[in-house]
Amino acid sequence: MDARSLWKRYQDWLYYHEGLGLYLDISRMRFDDAFVESMKPKFAQAFEDMKALENGAVANPDEGRMVGHYWLRNPDIAPTPELKQEILENLSHIEEFAQKVHNGTVHPPSASKFTDILSIGIGGSALGPQFVSTALAPESAPLEIHFIDNTDPAGIDALLNHIKDHLATTLVLVISKSGTTPDTRNGMIEVQKAFESMNLKFADHAVAITGHDSALEKQAQKENWIDIFPMHDWVGGRTSELSGVGLVPAALQGIDIRGMLAGAKEMDDATRQPDLKGNPAALLALSWYFAGNGRGEKDMVVLPYKDSLLLFSRYLQQLVMESLGKEKDLAGNTVYQGIAVYGNKGSTDQHAYVQQLREGVPNFFLTFIEVLEDRQGHSPDVEPGITTGDYLLGFLYGTREAVYDNQRDSISVTIPQVNPRIVGALIALYDRAVGLYASLINVNAYHQPGVEAGKKAASEILNLQTRIMEVIAAEGKPLSLEELAEKADAGDRIEMIYKILRHLHANGRQVTLSGNLAQPASLSVSAR
Ligand SMILES: O=P(O)(O)OC[C@H]1O[C@](O)(CO)[C@@H](O)[C@@H]1O
């Protein structure tokens, strides 16, 4: 297409949200009118599905749950007055709590104010708060936030070491919808022990954000933690940033949570429109469908050209991949759906993998995110009449052009600045795009059955560890791996037994491995 036709196509397909000052440009996705026509019936259905979902249909049929994250930003559309009331009360609860922490009404036993937050959670109970903190936490936030989002002992040590001088004034948020996620529970137990080792009472520092009646809620009640915020049954982990999960940490950091909710509501209003061209989420879903033939054949590379949006791609990775990556569709057919998402930020990534994007395997499409405001305040020239921000713009559009010229498609989202309203709007834009796309490909976007298999297998490995340790202790003499497997009644798990022993041995735990490490079958194991 020549430059003039592209300019026309740009204008034909440009979406602009006046209130938010947000632009969406899908002109560099090479679909034609026939494709758009062919998608219209699917979109008509997707808009209907979304309407039903917002009205309280059981849109997550496997788990028998409603899907209500849209109600959080507009309680007036909650399906019952009780739910509306609950949402409003929770919001006031969050704001009052943050205010009490800020003014010292809620304070640690040994100091007048909390200074730090330690947030323990994983997946949807971490990614949103991490993204929002990086994007929006003010320079001198009333509390500085830190995260434990893994069951990595060295990672926990590094974090605890970093905040040890502030532990006495640290407020701990334990965030888990299920209240049973082992990674989160492990982090919590290690943090509890760190408090005890400094003669600090953990309960006086702890807040739970969790589902009703969960093990975590019960523990918090029994131990009389500072406070408990609910996670609703009808809000999924990956769409929970605008529930207590994201709002409690954000409010504590002094981030304008009403602004985030307002931006999300404005975007929800725009993406509710049953009009393909006038609905930015539908335009995204259309583009994703086109890129990957509705089968996720191309990966989504997300490149925000702004450091503060670095974690947006990681946030979207869970939102998109956990929602769309499904083996079965809603009719039970095997479909192996999904869209792979990766990316960090521009222009940084141009010096990492953009070489391959420009010239290598054409198995992706790009999403550029441009922020119009360079910085607050004046930018000095780095060359006559040219600033660092001009360079960033040049690199973004240079890359867009270079990849397009080589048959690689891209979407561009342009926002005026990174502020709470816009961040809320971006979250809402992608929530809806994922919901619509899921409807186009007929999958349940709101469950995650695949994650359970890994969790179950992990728990079997831990049981196996307990079993073999019992055998080793009872035996009192060296055993070959074969003998151990047989005695533990796990003849088919010999490789796993070897790996458990290797790990225990490397950490100086209860076992000693003798023999040739290069030949696992030659090893024998005894109690240390
Ligand atoms: O909030 P929870 O229940 O601890 O779950 C954390 C994450 O784990 C998952 O269930 C996947 O294992 C995600 O869907 C969720 O966001």
Automatic annotation (TrEMBL):
Keywords, ordered alphabetically: Cytoplasm, Gluconeogenesis, Glycolysis, Isomerase
Catalytic machinery residues: 322, 351, 455
Record field: catalytic activity: alpha-D-glucose 6-phosphate = beta-D-fructose 6-phosphate
SUPFAM superfamilies according to UniProt: SIS domain
GO molecular function: carbohydrate derivative binding; glucose-6-phosphate isomerase activity; monosaccharide binding
Pathway involvement of the protein, from the record: Carbohydrate biosynthesis; gluconeogenesis; Carbohydrate degradation; glycolysis; D-glyceraldehyde 3-phosphate and glycerone phosphate from D-glucose: step 2/4
Any one Pfam family match given in the protein's UniProt record, by short name: PGI
GO cellular component: cytosol
Compartments in which it is found: Cytoplasm
Main location group: cytoplasm
Function: Catalyzes the reversible isomerization of glucose-6-phosphate to fructose-6-phosphate.
Name of the protein described by the UniProt record: Glucose-6-phosphate isomerase
Naturally occurring in which organism (per UniProt): Oscillatoria acuminata PCC 6304
Primary gene name: pgi
